[in-house]
Amino acid sequence: MSEKEMQALPEAANFIEQIINEDIAAGKLRPEQVQTRFPPEPNGYLHIGHAKSMFVNFGTALKYGGKCNLFFDDTNPSKEKTEFVDAIRADIHWLGYEWARECYASDFFDTIYEYAVRLIKEGKAFVCDLSAEEIKNTRGTLTEPGTESPYRGRSPEENLRLFEEMRAGKYKDGEKCLRAKIDMASPNVNMRDPVIYRILHATHHRTGDKWCIYPMYDFAHPICDFLQGVTHSLCTLEFEDHRPLYDWVGITLGFDPKPRQIEFARLNITNTVMSKRYLKKLVEDGKVRGWDDPRMPTLSGLRNRGIPAAAVRDFCSRIGVAKAQSECEYSYFEACVREYLNAHAARAMAVLDPVKVTLTDYEGEELLDFDVNPTDESAGRRTVKFGKHLYIDGADFSLDPPPKYFRLKPDGYVRLKNAYIIHCDEVVRDAEGKVEEVRCSYVPESHSGHDTSGIKVKGVIQWVNADCCADAEVRRYESLLRDADYPGQDFSERMNPNSEKIFSAKAEPALAEAAEGEAFQLLRTGYFKKCTEGGKLVLSEIVSLKDNFNKPRS
Ligand code: ATP
Ligand code: MG
Question: Is residue 319 in contact with ligand 1, taking CB distance under 6 Å?
């Protein structure tokens, strides 16, 4: 590679790109030949951890002008479904990635079988009659070598015949398997004659009943990578111990160029469980409304929650790619979402706990001017109708205020956002003492923007016009799991009973007319997604306005 080409190489943002740059510099490949794959198993929905894997796989290929395939790892027919394949495709598109080629491990079953036959012929694989249990018991430990299988000495001819019989369906599940003949004394347990094919009489979602033997992940993966032309096979750290086997398969079968496996740390987020098995259980036990429940860490959940794909990508880019395991605070993810929405979401007003306010001395109505988004001048201005009958939020009124209470209280002043300063003259209560109406007078000279009243108020609160507002169901969320009270606690004991709270709110009419799915900042409340359910306006929380991470939990 010339000096000039070297200089044109993208600067490595992480250790993976550093390795790729070294490979390019060593003349092993050209930048545009970089090829990766995103390899989900279609046995569930993608979650935010997968977003990191996609960021690494698609992002790296994009950076070098190379390619990233979508590779479905479907070697486990009993758990895989077409429903999941479709959902995975939709989630990848939502996140904003395009794959070069879509392929499946099952596309390569014939070739994988041929490779297994080759290993047998070369005396590098044998059919073993030990049960899974016996294989496990003879594998040895980290400190002791394993014991060789009594079937290890079978001739290639006998192995070939038995393997063909396995394929033809002559044996029951688990009765036999094919094992690579490597080294039962290897310090790496994965190298102790690993099983590479198993018998499984199960209908596959793509190949139907064509096969009753299936290759194991560790055998299928290096072969599929090679057949696709993958140059760098990027995976998570738990596969590090499998790399010697990955390399053994590639070297023994003479792959050239041999794909290179590089491992990086998984994304872990506090109070967030990503394992598909656990998420599936939440869905099946009815703890959530489905895989796309807005409290779920699935990509479909995040999408349904109203979290912008750009914020998820931004998060992945900020947390970086490293080799060391770590745990990211959930609040950091929220901060990325908040930052994006602060810059992009229009502002609106709603009150979650409506309290009636009457301005006894105000007559008529007027249109008040608001920024659509004060951080973005180009978003423009909008008007909101002001009038005599209003609602404010119950949280902004106190009959018995603590010291330094700057919102509305008996005989106190407060400013209504972009409107006037009002004074609380009288509180009407029902028989139980509940506040029915707060009667106020307004200060005509205090109009926002040209206030000449001289009255100093510290509190500014949002309001809605009672004569034209819309009823809205507001849904607020907390995490599905509470902090662990003691280590080793089961997830079911950590379920947060208050993970969803519903409010009968009043919202300004513009929200009812807004586009479905649009995100808003409800002033002083949070970011919400507008939707309509059965004709009803629903405002569903995307993220709170403030980081309440450090707040004590109630
Ligand atoms: P789970 O354990 O949640 O079921 P998985 O690893 O079985 O996940 P796959 O469908 O096999 O899920 O994953 C596809 C790819 O996504 C794999 O390369 C896997 O390493 C990667 N991946 C899964 N979870 C994470 C995570 N939390 N962070 C980064 N990458 C992940
Ligand atoms: Mg997996």
Answer: no
